[in-house]
Amino acid sequence: MAMEHLGRPDRPIAPAPELLWLRKMIVERALKRGDYLLSGGVRSDYYIDKFLLFSDPYVLRRIARLFTGLIAETNPDVIGGTELGGVVIATAVSQLANLPMIAIRKQPKGYGAFANEYVEGVYEKGQHVLLLEDVVTNGRELLAATRRLEDLGLEVTPCAVISRGLAPVRALIQFSLPSESPRGN
User: Fold this and answer.
1) Domain assignment of residue 143, given as a range
2) Is the pLDDT of residue 115 over 80?
3) If you ran DSSP here, which 8-state letter would residue 99 be given?
């Protein structure tokens, strides 16, 4: 099992003991073995059910604290979260950092006062957003959300809690498991 931070090796996002704790929590509480279709359309023999982590207030707060170093490094004006799991972690990080939070939808809302908009919450052009995602495989949704925010004139630093190893984005940890059985391509 591989586990490392992504980004600058000389400046990890969080202290190594905390990353080891997160890896342990993933394995003990959120890791499911089986045959799963992931959001990116690929199949995997394991799934990380992040809501088994996020539903525990102690675990959620501790994960949110892992972003303290990244907040100090990037100095965002706003914390952003991608629908749905990213909004949960962004809300917790926003509360701890005392920064406003915005939510970025996968599809425009389509109703209400701001129909056809992807972003919920208050922001101003030129602000810096720390955009958080829960688990990424290929990063497609996180990168699409990044582009949507940049199109609105925001500066964006995208980051995930967990990367399954294929996403070109920073994450607290890279988490991958060997396949239980060999699969043909």
Assistant:
1) 2-176
2) no
3) -
